[in-house]
Design brief:
The chain has about 425 residues and is α+β, with helices and mostly antiparallel strands. The protein contains five helices and 25 strands. This is TlpA family protein disulfide reductase.
C-alpha cells in the first residue's frame, strides 16, 4: 500500500486489536442477514439497507442494497468487537463497533488526506429490511409520482436542471436522478400522504431526496449530500423534459482539431498522445476521478469493452485529477486492479475543473467528471461526451451504448494514415 497516512491508520487499527489476543472473552461478529442503518446528518436521518454474509472476517461480504442494485465490500476485523469496511475504490470506510445488544454503531469516515475530519455517525439494527417506514405504519399516498420530472435546483452557483425518473407502486418509490455529470445511481424510498423520501448509499457519500407534493401537483424539497451542503429544489412533471445535450457541452475551441497532453503514468513515466503507440490508433481519453461514482460506472463499462476490442486497434487513456502521484498510485491502482483496467492510467493533478481546462487548453471548458473524448486514427477529436448515464437510466443508457459502439465501429473501419507508425505489439498489459 502506497499511501503512508492510510497505511498508518490501518496498521494502527489492527494493532489496537492485538492487545486483545490473550483475552478469553468471545470475539463478537456481525449477524448474518439484512440490516437497516441510519446516518445522522445534522438533525436529519438518512436510512440505508445492507446484507451481511459470512461467520468470520475471512469469509464475510458486506452488501449495500439499493432497489435492484447490489454493491459488495470486504470486511476487516478490528480487535474483538469492531470492523473496518473500506468502500472499495472510494477513499472512505465504514468503521463500526458491535454493541453488546447486537446493534452496530460507528461512522462513515473519509480517508482522503486533509479531509479525515469529515465523518457521518450511524447506527444499524439487525433484521429490519424496511428503509423509511415500518411495516403496517404506511399512510395512503396523496398521489402517484411515476413518470419524468424536471427539477430546478437552487444553489449559490448556477446549476443545470436535473431530471428525475420515478416509479411508484403503492407507497414504495424507486428511481434515479440524472444531471449533466451523470446519474444518482438507483434510489429507494417511500410516499406517505403528501410527503416523499428517497435515499441512496452505494459507497460514496450517502444522499437523500425528500419533499412535499403540493396541491397543484408540483413537488418541492431538499437534496442532502451526506457530508456536504443541502440544496433546495422544485419539480414539475414533464414527460418531455430533457437534459442539455451531453455531446455538445464540451468541444474543441475554434482552430483546434486535435488534443495533446503529456502526463505521468502511475510509475512516473511521461505518456503523450503524440507517442508512437497511439499513432494511427483510435484513442479513447477517459477523464475520471476515483472519488466519482459515475466515473467508476463508466470504467465498469469501458474496461471490458477495451479488453474485448483492443486487438482492433484501440488504445485508451484514463486519468484523474489529484494532488500527489503517491496518492494517485494508491487510489488509481485500486481502481485498476478491481476493474481489470489494462489501458494506461495517467495522473493529471488536483481534482479541479478549472485545472483540467488549463491542462487541456484545446477544450472550450471542462464541465464534469467523467468526460469521454474519442479520437480517430488521424489524431482528430471526433466526439466528446460529458458525464455518464448508467444502466439504471434505462433508455438513456441504451442510447449511449448504441451510439458509442456505432461510432467506434465506424472509426475502427477507417484506414490509418500512411504516416502512422507501424505498431503491432500487444499492448494489453499497458499501465499494469
Amino acid at each position: 500500500m502506497k499511501n503512508n497516512n492510510l497505511k498508518g491508520l490501518l496498521i494502527g487499527l489492527l494493532f489496537s486489536g492485538a492487545a486483545f489476543a490473550g483475552d478469553k472473552e468471545p470475539v463478537k461478529f456481525i449477524k448474518e442477514g439484512v440490516w437497516r442503518g441510519v446516518f445522522r446528518v445534522s438533525e436529519s436521518q438518512v436510512p440505508f439497507n445492507f446484507e451481511f454474509k459470512g461467520k468470520d472476517a475471512e469469509h464475510a461480504v458486506f452488501t449495500l442494497l439499493n432497489g435492484s442494485r447490489r454493491d459488495n465490500f470486504h470486511v476487516q476485523k478490528i480487535g474483538k468487537d469492531s470492523v473496518f469496511i473500506k468502500m472499495n475504490t472510494y477513499d472512505a470506510a465504514l468503521v463500526a463497533k458491535i454493541e453488546d445488544n447486537g446493534t452496530l454503531s460507528g461512522e462513515y469516515r473519509s480517508l482522503v488526506p486533509g479531509f479525515r475530519g469529515n465523518s457521518l455517525p450511524f447506527t444499524a439494527e439487525y433484521g429490519k429490511s424496511y428503509r423509511f417506514v415500518e411495516p403496517g405504519k404506511d399512510v395512503a399516498p396523496a398521489a402517484n409520482l411515476t413518470g419524468k420530472w424536471e427539477l430546478k435546483v437552487y444553489s449559490k452557483e448556477q446549476v443545470p436542471n436535473k431530471i428525475a425518473v420515478l416509479k411508484q407502486t403503492g407507497n414504495k418509490l424507486t428511481g434515479v436522478i440524472m444531471q449533466v455529470t451523470g446519474d444518482s445511481r438507483e434510489l429507494e424510498g417511500t410516499v406517505q400522504g403528501d410527503q416523499f423520501e428517497l435515499s441512496g448509499f452505494t459507497g460514496p457519500s450517502p444522499k437523500i431526496y425528500r419533499g412535499k407534493i403540493n396541491a397543484d401537483g408540483t413537488l418541492s424539497g431538499e437534496i442532502g449530500s451526506g457530508i456536504y451542503d443541502n440544496t433546495k429544489f422544485d419539480a414539475v412533471k414533464d414527460d418531455k423534459a430533457e437534459l442539455p445535450d451531453p455531446y455538445k457541452l464540451t468541444f474543441l475551441k475554434e482552430g483546434y482539431k486535435k488534443l495533446d497532453f503529456t502526463f505521468p503514468d502511475l510509475n512516473g513515466k511521461p505518456v503523450s498522445l503524440s507517442d508512437d503507440k497511439y499513432k494511427g490508433k483510435v484513442v479513447i481519453v477517459e477523464i475520471i476521478g476515483t472519488w466519482c461514482p459515475n466515473c467508476t460506472d463508466q470504467t465498469v463499462f469501458l474496461s471490458p469493452w477495451f479488453n474485448k476490442n483492443h486487438q482492433r486497434g484501440v488504445e485508451a487513456i484514463g486519468f484523474e485529477q489529484k494532488d500527489s502521484l503517491e496518492y494517485a498510485r494508491y487510489t488509481l491502482g485500486k481502481l485498476r486492479d478491481k476493474y481489470n483496467v489494462k489501458y494506461d492510467i495517467l495522473f493529471g493533478g488536483l481534482a479541479d475543473k478549472k485545472l483540467v481546462s488549463q491542462k487541456l487548453p484545446a477544450l472550450n471548458k471542462f464541465v464534469a467528471f467523467p468526460t469521454t473524448i474519442i479520437i480517430d486514427r488521424k489524431g482528430e477529436v471526433r466526439e466528446i461526451y460529458t458525464g455518464y448515464t448508467g444502466t439504471v437510466t434505462g433508455k438513456y443508457y441504451k442510447d449511449y451504448e448504441k451510439k458509442f459502439n456505432a461510432l467506434l465501429d465506424k472509426l475502427l473501419a477507417e484506414e490509418a494514415p500512411a504516416t502512422a507508425a507501424v505498431n503491432t505489439d500487444d499492448r494489453a498489459t499497458q499501465g499494469r
